[in-house]
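step=encode ok
step=design start
structure_in=
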């Protein structure tokens, strides 16, 4: 089932029509995730189910949440596709 869904996504009509929309959604999801994780993480909380964690990049501390990124990307992709 997963293989069929993956093949439909990469080779099917869904990917060919939603390519630019997915790029827009990933960018929006990353920006929203970074902003919310910055606020939650800087207060010392992990956000519960959001699982905010800090990353050390050279001399900078970056807060990130993969569940929030996936949810934000999926939500924004759906909204962008609805507007077509």
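sequence_out=
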């Amino acid at each position: 089932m997963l293989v069929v869904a993956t093949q439909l996504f990469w080779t099917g009509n869904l990917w060919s029509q939603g390519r630019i929309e997915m790029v827009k959604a990933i960018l929006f999801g990353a920006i929203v995730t970074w902003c919310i994780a910055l606020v939650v993480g800087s207060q010392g909380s992990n956000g519960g189910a959001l699982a905010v964690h800090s990353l050390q990049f050279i001399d900078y501390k970056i807060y990130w949440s993969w569940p929030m990124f996936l949810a934000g990307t999926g939500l924004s992709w759906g909204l962008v596709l609805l507007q077509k």
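step=design ok
step=annotate ok -> Strands lie at 53-57, 60-64.
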